Amino acid sequence: MISRRIVAPSLALGLAAIISLGAFSASASAEETVPGSSGIPGFPSESPTTPPVEETKTLVLSPAKAVTKPGVPVTFEVTVLASEGGAPLDPQPELEYFLGTDLSGDVVDGLTVTAFRDGPRAVIVRSGAQYGVTSLTVVGDPVALQITPSAPSVAKGGSLTFAVTGTDKWGTPIDGSAAVLTSSVGTDVVSGQTVTFPTASPHTITATLAGVTASVTVEVVASSGEAAAPAAPETPTGLAETGAAPLGAGLTAAMLLLAGAAVSVLTVARRRAARQ
């Protein structure tokens, strides 16, 4: 009898403790952030971009459709509209805002979001029964590049500037100003996005960014003086050639006169010798 009297109250106390723990657990779960709400109090569990029916979309976030780099914070401003799609209130009321995103890992501090994962996410703000939504995209590494010269050709010794563009896996445009340029011709001088060409020939310029490359070929043209072959000296014709003929004839005549004079001298000498 004694053991039954002790066991029965113990069981009752155990059941009461279990019920109390269950109630505490349910209360604690209710106080936790709703799953999928990204830390925004009162948002429904299905998605932070699906506000309760009674709310009105009268808050506007700017910048709209912001784009940033990993770890670079973006601070939003909120404008309150008189009605959905209506004009802004003037003056703007002083309200308390709650901001969040639908992607885990983002850090929210007031109206500032610092995101580290690349890709788009929804940013939603609410104040009481009012809400607003925009997007924030974090640019990822490029998956495709394009390099475009300022002109398709250039004179020898001239320079061209190259624009490098591309997209990440989400299709978001990337900043190609950090791309490294190289040339197929070793004498070319590369300075940032500008290349100077000391020699005339086709030159292939390659841009490299985060392991992705793109190339373009430009024609470096020599000056007109260098392109033309040196002219061969012309052979004298006409008067210059005819001037050589009288000179030859004069020499011949002089030689004949000398020969005739020599013959005359010899003839006179022989006659004198015969008389003696």
Plain-language structure description:
- The protein is of the alpha+beta class and 276 residues long.
- Among the domains are: 59-138, Immunoglobulin-like (Sandwich); 142-222, Immunoglobulin-like.
- The chain has four helices and 17 strands.
- Strand 8 and strand 9 (130-138) form a beta hairpin.
- Residues 1-30 form the signal peptide.
The main pleated sheet reads as:
4 strands, mixed
CATH superfamily of one domain: Immunoglobulins
- Helix count equals 4
Please trace the helix and strand order, writing H or E for each element.
HEEEEEEEEEEEEEEEEEHHH
In quaternary terms, these chains amount to single chain
The overall average pLDDT, rounded, is 78
| CATH fold-level label of one domain | Immunoglobulin-like
* Structure classification: alpha+beta
Radius of gyration: 49 Å
CATH architecture of one domain: Sandwich
Range of strand content: 25-35%
Write the layout of secondary structure elements.
Elements: H1 2-31, E1 59-62, E2 66-68, E3 74-75, E4 77-80, E5 98-101, E6 107-109, E7 112-114, E8 119-127, E9 130-138, E10 142-149, E11 153-155, E12 159-168, E13 180-183, E14 189-191, E15 194-196, E16 202-209, E17 212-221, H2 224-227, H3 239-242, H4 244-275
Parallel strand pairs: 2-9, 11-17
Antiparallel strand pairs: 1-4, 3-7, 5-8, 6-7, 8-9, 10-12, 12-15, 13-16, 14-15, 16-17
